[in-house]
Amino acid sequence: MHIEGTVAVVTGAGSGIGRALAVALAAAGASVVAGDIDEAGAEQTGERIRAAGGAAMGVRADASSTDGVTALIASARDEFGPVDVYVANAGIIGPPGLGDDERDWDRIIDINVRGHVRAAKALVPEWLERGRGHFVTIASAAGLLTQIGAAGYAVTKHAAVGFAEWLSITYGDNGIGVTCVCPMGVDTPLLKHISDSADPAVRVGAAAVVNAGEVIGPDRVADMTVEAIREDRFLVLPHPAVLDMYRHKGGDYERWIAGMRRYQRTLG
To answer: What integer pLDDT is reported at residue 210 of this predicted model?
Structure first.
């Protein structure tokens, strides 16, 4: 895809990977709508892009609801035109363990999975008519491997990867590109939040991420993602070691499970 002249929407764009992606897409020539539940953060992202000479607006957006996703897409269309690139980045870690409340599961599923489904339902019919469009799923290495300490995060990131695969298989021959990004540790407010948590169960999850490999900056993730959009590539692995881990998992599942149990014991 030629990014220059396109319209891009990025959810969770008030900080971290979302902000870096919004800035990188604008630098590549896209007009960007930065959406976030944190309105001030979204506006700051828009201001940063405009200060660099790009076209952008920051809006409050709830990526967990149908109305929120619909309104975000409508804002982009009203300001810049039809959406060409949609980056489903908004995500939460959720509670540790199995969670104590069914509402916790509803919330993480709504944000980390249904937000992607709702955006695709809103955009895919239009993209099929136009013969082009690109959907970007910001998942996690947890979607290929797992997440120690947080069942909700592990499950929903697996689901996000699965949905991205389905989109690519189903619509990839109709001009719709799909890119799925699966990093390990990234230096974001989310990682800092769980690393500094007063809850030891939450900190175990953070330690599992931090100790697994290098914690990289969000700019690296954004640059690799923009390159993948240009090249119409599906899988982006900012931490190349994830591919070896994934192959090891598939090559001997029982051994991998046992190894993850051993790793978990080192974190307690």
So the answer is: 85
CA distance 161 to 216: 21
Instruction: Give me 205's structure tokens.
Output: 């999850």
pLDDT at residue 252 greater than cutoff 90? yes
171 as an active site residue: the answer is no
Tokens 């290098």, located at residue: 214
Residue 1's SS3 state is coil
CA distances from 205 to 141, 159, 195, 231, 265 (A): 13, 19, 8, 34, 12
What is the arrangement of strands in the sheet containing 7-10, beginning at the earlier edge strand?
Answer: 56-60, 31-36, 7-10, 85-88, 133-138, 176-181, 235-236
Contact 142, 154 (CB under 8 A): yes
Instruction: Estimate to the nearest angstrom the gap between the alpha carbon of 137 and the chain centroid.
Output: 5
Strand bridging mode 235-236 / 85-88 = unpaired
Which pLDDT belongs to residue 185?
92
| CA 198 – CA 224 distance, rounded (Å) | 34
> Cα-flanking dihedrals φ and ψ of residue 154, to 5°?
-60, -45
What pLDDT sits at residue 180?
Answer: 98
Residue 164 CA from chain centroid, whole number:
11
Q: Mean pLDDT, to the nearest integer, of 93-100?
A: 87
Does the CA dihedral 144-237-139-172 come out positive or negative?
A: negative
Q: Per the residue annotation, which of 86, 153, 246, 263 is the catalytic one? A: 153
